[in-house]
Amino acid sequence: MEKNLNEVSRKNxxxxxxxxxxxxxxxxxxxxxxxxxVSAPAKVVSAAANSMNYIPGSKGQWSKLxxxxxxxxxxxxxxxxxDEWLGTTRIxxxxxxxxxxxxxxxxCARGLLGEKAQKGVLSFIAKHPLGGSINDTLMYxxxxxxxxxxxxxxxxxIPDPEQMSKHIKDVAYFLRADEVGIGKMPPYAYYSxxxxxxxxxxxxxxxxxxxxxxxxxxxxxxxxxxxxxxETTLASTGYDGISGSxxxxxxHATGNIAVILAKYIRRLGYNARAHHARNYGAxxxxxxxxxxxxxxxxxxxxxxxxxxxxxxxxxxVTTDLPLAPDKPIDFGLxxxxxxxxxxxxxxxxxxxxxxxxxxxxxxxxRWNSDFKKCAVFxxxxxxxxxxxxxxxxxxxxxxxxxxxxxSGTWLGSKGKVSAKLLRDIDDMFGxxxxxxxxxxWWLEWPENYRIP
Amino acid sequence: xxxxxxxxxxxLFLGGILxxxxxxxxDKVWKAVLxxxxxxxxxxxxWMGFSFVYINSxxxxxKATSTAVFLFLGVSVVLAFxxxxxxxxxxxxxxxxxxxx
Lengths: 452, 101
Known about the structure:
The complex is a heterodimer.
Chain A: H1 2-12, H2 19-51, E1 77-78, E2 85-86, E3 89-90, E4 98-99, H3 104-109, H4 115-120, H5 129-139, H6 144-147, H7 161-174, E5 179-184, E6 191-195, E7 211-213, E8 220-227, H8 230-235, H9 243-267, E9 272-275, H10 284-290, E10 295-296, E11 303-304, E12 312-319, E13 329-330, H11 333-340, H12 342-346, E14 359-361, E15 364-366, H13 371-380, H14 389-393, H15 403-412, H16 416-428
Parallel strand pairs in A: 4-6
Antiparallel strand pairs in A: 1-13, 2-3, 5-8, 6-7, 8-12, 9-12, 10-11, 14-15
Helix pairs in contact in A: 5-9, 11-16, 15-16
Chain B: H1 2-24, H2 29-59, H3 62-87, H4 92-100
Helix pairs in contact in B: 2-3
């Protein structure tokens, strides 16, 4: 009886652990926790992947269809995205969200940049039948129903953010994107207000009547990029009849990819909105930089990709799908643009500055190029449709695949002295400013280019 | 065409080695090293020129093609003369006569 009482009292006592054993147990528990933390995501991925019959890509791989990103010959390093920098763009103060009503072509439509630009903006793409056709086709996917909508009520199983990012990139490549990147969505990239009417109606009403606040704020942005076509660029002056069509080739292709991608993500049960040339909710250059697809150039509001240069167009998808964003890139473009100035020398409107250094604009540093002059020239150009002369002459535009062009861009990414050398070599061999007639495949109707 | 040119480049490189081997050996090592270095540099530069001109002309870069013909051909010819002189293909008889006089 006494023995039983002793056993009961021993059972009721709290467990006694010496300090030494306590430390030992703590170390074992910590080690077990660490092993669990390291192995758990792999198990989750494996389990999730098995349920979707998906074989995860290897660690560090860009995507399964393109294991390495294609930066041409440039030396690229990854940089930060924080309160002081967006890639290589220095942030010096609060950046105000931009009102879509104040973008260049809308200023033209409002009659603020002259009567000729106001007339020209309504037909500067459509005055070439091909440009008009591509634009009209893009309009089919420009409705609010096409670009946005409610996600499916039930979330579908998906892999972990790293694998899902690879998968999303593969979807974009499958849909014929030339480049794709994922970034943290900079909140200042969103428009503050969005336009709701066509450009033909903007001048007849006050701005408040046809703009609405744009309130979406999602954490990630997927940017898709499509080449504007090498041979066509080689044959074009940059501001002839095909120029607008080249832009809309890129806009149409990226717009369709973005719309499909956004719909796919919504079907998975997550929020997603497509942004493309005929229905933006955000300004594209900060999205491109955040997604690691370029740096801001001397033109002030266009980005350059290390392989494609200016010769691209982009569309984007903003989403809350769990993703692992890429980092912005630095391939020495700030040094390069500081010394090159080839775009400024060749700009038919004189919109691009010759300044050596960027200046402050809306809370960040950029070159002081005049987007209004650019918009006026593009809408009133009577030698063709729109303009992409800066795109044509920039030494960063990829030419045909060759060891010497890759060597050239490698050289250009190495600092100011080598940048000057690349610019001089580019001039010496006549790249950029030449027009190669054997690729001129399109038809021109110069009588259509005049503005009545 | 590219594959053929690569094959041709390799075959000619080996042929060139066999051709200059008897003359490349010199009494001093640094002279032999100089000969072989110059041969490799000249050969690489010449074929870089062929490649550059071939690609640019096929794409249609007219100025790049014509500039490269002068640039690469010019440098290649100068290097070839220097190499030929060092190997004794040219100028050797003249120096022999001078020595015997």
